[in-house]
User: What shape does this take?
Amino acid sequence: MKKHAKKTIKTILLLLIPLFLFSLSSSTEQSTQADITRADPAAPFIPTPPPTKFLGMWSSSGYNLQPQPDYYVVLGDTVSIRTNTVRSVSGFILSIGDSPHYRWWQEGTDGKWFEISKSNNGQKKNFSVTPTEIGDTTYQLDTQYYKYLTSWISKTYLYSQMTTVHVSPEPVEVEKLDVTVDDDYVYYTSTSKDEPNITNAHAIPTPANATGNITWSIDDTSLATINDDGQITANSNSKSGWVEITATMSNYETPDLTGREKVQIGGGLDDQRVKSGQTADFTLKGNTFDEDENEDIDSVTVSWTKYPPGSNSGSTAPNNVNDTTYTTPITTIADNGSQYQATIKVTSGKNTKTVTSNRATLTVIPAGDPALEITNTIINDSYTDTKDTDILLNNVIGGDSITYKNTVTNNSTEGPLVNGFYVIPLQPQTIINSVTVAGEVLPTTSYETIYNADTNSDDLVIDIDNIDIQSSKDIEVNTTAPDITTKKSFEFTPYVYGDNADGNGATYRQDGTISQINYITDKIQSDIADIDFGTITAYSKDTLLRRPDKNNSPSNIANIDDQRRDKTATKVFVTQLAELTNEQNYVLPATIRYYKNGNYETILNNKVKISETLSGNGLGSIAWGKDDGLLLHINENHLPAGQYSTILTWSFENSL
Assistant: This one.
């Protein structure tokens, strides 16, 4: 038994000695952090400075997710104070195996601070509390990194900022919700399997004391995920793109509110596109190195590698610089498709961490812009007006076949038009019968009409693809004019737009010639005035009442706009279909007569001609002198009181 006991003691000593030596050799960060202690047992800890980041790598340790300065909660509800700590590259390497241990502290009503017990969630990273009293309580988190066997030798201390929980008796509704993020670019390349690349989103309510709960969501979980704390973790599958973060804050009586923000996920470099003869800049995205803020990092070196087009064998890039931005030499077409990559080495003491960016592709395009010229004409296939021109059509009616003929010529000797579209503004509701480009009838998927509120037009947008240098394309569109309910003039300008050779969107546009189509209804448009004969006395037998002055010449009783393309002979008739009656259906003993040159005709149930025109002449408006036209003859006395009315029917008939 004695031999066995002696052997056991010897084994323990052998284990303790290397652990002790390791702790001494790796205590740089721990001793620095351990210097941050409480000034007085009754006072809170001095908060650890915020951690710093370089290109997705933490260069110092600290809280990357601090408790909010203030939390607002309704009495009886639970509030969760969420935190997260990170360790620097060197700190992580030197302290492999260390785990975090949490101690929450609370300020008492007497102003003294005490440690919250484990049973009250005092040893959890995220502290949850359900207040039982109205008022304010302040907390602080002490996070310690250590190994259980060596905790008496070395610890890393990280102290959060203080946070206050405000408890109110009634809920407070949120009126506005903003979202911010710590980093708008997150690397998908992690610095270690245990420390993935993360950033945090924050919801900022208005008013600040809103008491609703916050939930988080993200629109593309293949790029990144987000947890209940608003912590965003980039994917580890080398996928790049943008994600939209959404925060939703609950309300009690009104609808919940949301706020949104976008974050880019990537490998550090974006593809670049330049014209031949230019240089290209490749810049590492995200946080860049600041020597004053990264005392934990001794040195950072950046080297650049170039891969020729189609090759996986790279070599040091020409003009290689130790910088986060690399500028290529002046490019030629031969550089098109080459790729560039950055390798970053971070050194802290004897420890080195290497991170490699993605490969970014360089696209080199021919220099020069297109030089376009447009010839555009319009033709009415259904009718020819003597005043028509190539860019003016008159007296167009619904159902006419209208053809638009256009030619786009590229006179440039250097720049093609890329991803081109030809646009013809059309009168709304115009029917598209066919679209032909370069002699080929296009399918309907190659064009569309988009309503343009600014010009009140249906813009026909036609995909015409590319127009090479010193070449042209013919575009022909056949349409049917829409129904026309009122006379109008429609002025429009066709145009072409697209990319120049660099293909960066609608960077080039050329307008054609202003054109005009004058539409008519092909009908007689009329506006007939009402006639009011005024007040009639009870004893007015054999009285002839005349119209008020407003219904007499020079004012028109009938405003007529003859928009017929074919001006056939036309007659205008008026008829009274019923007696003049009042509200009690009493019949007024009076007759409406049509007078002309002292002669008259009664119009009750009698179609009386009041105007006509010869063939080839348009029908004009009608106006009467005070003694002509429709007058009212009173036939009897003892007229029952009341307001009398009837309806007159006007008709327009072609003469044979």
User: Anything to note?
Assistant: DSSP finds three helices and 50 strands in the chain. The domain at 28-168 is CATH 2.60.40.10 (Immunoglobulin-like). The longest helix spans residues 2-25.
